[in-house]
Structures are given as structure tokens and as C-alpha cells.
Amino acid sequence: MQKQNIIFNLDDTLVYCNRYFNKVIGEFADQMTIWFHTLTKEQIKQKQLEIDLELIDEHGLTSDRFPESFIGAYKYFCDLTGKEKVKHEIEFLRELGFKVFNVPVEPLPYMNETLQQLKKAGHELYLHTGGDEENQRRKITQLELTTYFEHRIFISVHKDTTALSDILKTIDADPKITWMIGNSLRTDIIPALELNINAIYIPAEVEWKYNEVEVKVEPKAAFLTLNSLQDVPTAIHKHIKEEGLNHSFGLVP
Hints:
It is a single chain. The protein has two domains: 5-16 and 108-248, Rossmann fold (3-Layer(aba) Sandwich); 18-102. By secondary structure, the chain is α/β, with parallel strands linked by helices. The chain has a six-stranded parallel β-sheet with strand order 3-2-1-4-5-6, with helices on both faces. The radius of gyration is 21 Å and the shape is elongated. It has helices at 18-35, 41-59, 65-81, 87-99, 111-120, 133-142, 146-149, 161-170, 185-194, 232-248; strands spanning 5-8, 124-130, 153-156, 178-182, 198-201, 223-225. The two termini are 19 Å apart. Helices cover 51% and strands 11% of the residues. It is built from ten helices and six strands; from the N terminus they run E-H-H-H-H-H-E-H-H-E-H-E-H-E-E-H.
């Protein structure tokens, strides 16, 4: 079997992530309705999301951005309603936002089994995760992911086509035998398709609005959608086998 370069995303591909953010956002909305009696939780969550998405352009996927979205929403509604901005309330929101980065990380089902199976088959495993170094390393360390990825770990504050392109150049990857596996259409799948490598999309249980984009790139390599991590090894090995048969019969150059 031909060895493949397999690049995994981390958050909501290998480990749970959005569920923790949504829980903290719920706590934020609950507290805000106590301070702002005329607002609904939906109005509060919508403004927080709007500010959070705006901050990505400036700060990327850093941890600091998320708590700032709470504070930005709070200040917005203070200005809107005439409420005084209270220092200890702002500090409370900042601490609440950072709370999500102290939650023990939890692997998705079949994470270890999938990585072990691919490693045992002789494939080269890589990790490309978005965020800041400290928080992502915390997760990697907690789950001992260097067992599978060793030093082949890349952390990008701005996770996009440029970041993935730099990784492919660094590892000198042949696009035909290189895969990107992730839950984010924006930061995993579209960059992979734009760089003509194979892509596997595994939708998250709960998706973040930032990741919900339309895929307008025409795939020039394999583009699969799977329901679970455990389906990844079979799908890749089936593709390798089919490619081998096509070469044997002269169906591909």
C-alpha cells in the first residue's frame, strides 16, 4: 500500500471543542439578561457572534479574541441602553470567556483507534490546528497526541490556504498522496481543494458559524464526506486501491 501524507485538524475533528464554547456562551447570555432585562438571550448571542467573527480578521484564532467578544457585546449593549459600564462586570466576563480554555479536552469517538490504525499502516500523520500555541499545546499534551504526530505538528493563528500551502512546502508533499481531514469547510476543506490535495470532510456535531461557508472550488482530487473518524482508514485505503487499479488499466496518466 502506497504511504500517504495525512493531515488532521484538531478541534471538532479529533477532539470536542464547540460544545464547550457553546456552554460558556450560554452562561454569558444568562448573566447578560440579569444586567439587561429588556434583552433576549438570542439578541445577546447574536451580537457576541457578530463581534467574535469581526475580531478574527484582526486577531486570528487566538484565545484572547473570545473573551473580548463578551466584553465587546457588553459595551455595545451598555451604550445602547444607557447602562453604566462597571469594571468588575467587565472583569467577570473576561474570566468567564477564558474559562473555556481550562476545560479538560475530550477526544471524539474512535480518535485513538483511527490514528493507531493509520500509523500502523505506515502512513505519515500530521496535525494542523488553528489557535494560539499555548492553548493548542495544552490539548496535544493532555491527549498525548505526539504518540501519533511526533514533531509533525503545525499551529496556525490564521488557518487558511496560505498556512496549508506553507505546510505542504515544508513537508515536500506530493498532492496525489496527501490528505486534509477536518470539520471546517472554511479552514480545512476549501484550502485543501484550492491546493489540489485530497480532502475528507467530517461534519461536527455542532458547527461554529465561522466554518459554515459554501464550497465553490471544483475538486481535482478525492473529496469525501464521512460521518465518523472510524470511517477514515477504510475510505483512504479504498481510494488507494482504486487509484492503483486505474493506473494498472491505463485509466489515468
